């Protein structure tokens, strides 16, 4: 395959993966069945791994199969480019989500850009909900404006917003927590 076409396919796959990840996160991981694994990610982690990590293993399988099938000629060059795009999205996700947002590996990275801050804040708002219902912001390369997400949480009848860490239960400091 001509290199520029392969590169275009790779970049396109990374972009499409954001939509795929959004859909899987919203409608599979937050479903009754999917929550059996994903719930561990919304609780305090005990140890290095959580049950939710099995999703990463399962989602890596198509990438590995596509790369293998493309490299060995069974599927064609396109498969390697697509598989590499899926893998690269997984790497971006791991870096942003697991390392930077959740601190699963020690680092000194501080979000400074407007984009970076919005991604981190949006994911924190996703975790502000106690349980699987009423959560906001399911993607990770793109996040809606934080103010819109806050309005969605406030308006949601399903979202049970948890108390911030280190706060006395019942004490309120924001309109988000003062919901009817």
Automatic annotation (TrEMBL):
Residues 154-180 are annotated as: Disordered. Residues 157-168 have a biased composition (Basic and acidic residues). This is Sterol desaturase family protein. It comes from the Bacteria. Residues 11-140 form the Fatty acid hydroxylase domain. The keyword ATP-binding does not apply. Belongs to the sterol desaturase family. The chain crosses the membrane at residues 6-24, 54-72, 78-96. Keywords: Carotenoid biosynthesis, Membrane, Oxidoreductase, Transmembrane, Transmembrane helix. It comes from Sphingomonas arvum. Signal peptide: none annotated.
């Amino acid at each position: 395959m001509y290199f520029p076409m392969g590169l275009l396919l790779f970049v396109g796959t990374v972009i499409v993966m954001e939509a795929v990840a959004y859909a899987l996160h919203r409608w599979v991981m937050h479903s009754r069945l999917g929550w059996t694994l994903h719930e561990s990610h919304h609780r305090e982690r005990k140890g290095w791994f959580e049950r939710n990590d099995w999703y990463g293993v399962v989602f890596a399988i198509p990438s590995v199969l596509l790369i293998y099938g493309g490299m060995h000629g069974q599927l064609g060059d396109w498969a390697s480019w697509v598989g590499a795009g899926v893998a690269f999205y997984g790497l971006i996700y791991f870096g942003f989500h697991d390392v930077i947002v959740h601190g699963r590996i020690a680092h000194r990275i501080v979000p400074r850009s407007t984009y970076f801050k919005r991604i981190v804040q949006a994911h924190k708002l996703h975790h502000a909900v106690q349980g699987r219902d009423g959560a906001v912001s399911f993607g990770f390369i793109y996040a809606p404006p934080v103010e819109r997400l806050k309005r969605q949480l406030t308006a949601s009848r399903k979202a049970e917003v948890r108390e911030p860490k280190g706060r006395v239960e019942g004490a309120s400091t924001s309109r988000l927590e003062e919901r009817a």
